[in-house]
Amino acid sequence: MSQRSGILFLVSGPSGSGKTTLCRRLSEEGEASYAISCTTRQPRPGETHGKDYFFLSIPEFKEKIANGEFLEFAEVHGNFYGTLTSEVINKLEQGTDVVLDIDVQGAAQVRDTTNPTVKNALVDIFIMPPSKEELHKRLSGRGTDSTEVIATRMKNSLEEMEHWPKYTFRLLSRTHEEDYTHFKSLLLGERLRINRHL
């Protein structure tokens, strides 16, 4: 019996939706390998290079764009973010499931890829906050951003939420545990699909 290729579990959602927490927990429990993104933004307190993100300078990032090293990249909130193709392809070909936490711009680029490994592996899901009020509460609760930054993130989040119909699945966020149960169940269900074993 041939080994199945890995699943590329692409996850999007606005800031405050809980998508990063879900992706990290899935990785920490050994269910999937987390694809670490590159960014030009400054590290937040407690963030580590090579664990949370690959923190790059703008010239470093642009050099990788020129070399065609990104599966997807975008400018978000004035900073560049991107996923290295090498972070994804090798794992998928080895049969490892990969979870990818990216915004709607990046997701569109991944959907448009011509790489057959990525196209065959892709499963996309949008994490939707329960309400605008809850979203604002979550964004304000971080305690790391100014009122202006929160307002900008809220505006961008509402714009991102308009893209959910482009995704195969939508998870309406409730509690952390409920979200994770549904999130993990979706991945397990995809592993059972017959066409992933042919």
From TrEMBL:
It comes from the Bacteria. It is an enzyme of class 2 (transferase). InterPro entries: GK/Ca_channel_bsu, Guanylate_kin-like_dom, Guanylate_kinase, Guanylate_kinase_CS, P-loop_NTPase. Its EC number is 2.7.4.8. SUPFAM superfamilies: P-loop containing nucleoside triphosphate hydrolases. It is found in: Cytoplasm. The keyword Calcium does not apply. GO terms for molecular function: GMP kinase activity. Belongs to the guanylate kinase family. HAMAP family: Guanylate_kinase (MF_00328). This is Guanylate kinase. It comes from Rubritalea spongiae.
